[in-house]
Amino acid sequence: MYVKELILYYPLTRKPPSLLRVKLNINKEILMDEVRKRMSELFKPIDQQIMMCDDPDEILMLACIMLQSAKDIFDSRLGTEGRKKMFN
Predict the structure, then answer these.
(1) Distance from C-alpha of 35 to C-alpha of 30, rounded to nearest angstrom
(2) What whole-number distance in Å separates Cα of residue 67 and Cα of residue 78?
(3) 59-88: per-residue pLDDT in tens?
(4) Where are the domains of the chain?
């Protein structure tokens, strides 16, 4: 899978190899389909938690903790400036 290659090469060179970039462009549709499938898998437990909420207040409580978790994830992976770009 090309994503794994990108993850392996990128931290070492800080710039993905052009050949890898070409491979990603050629297989962009296949890659995006895989990403969509994986995102769907990752969302299933969240969807189940939403279904378990009994009233609108519980849904708001869940949304608040999810938003805080998303903020923390963006901060740890992208830094404060990256997070601000995601939320704007």
Answers:
(1) 9
(2) 16
(3) 999 999 999 999 999 999 999 998 888 877
(4) 1-43, 53-88
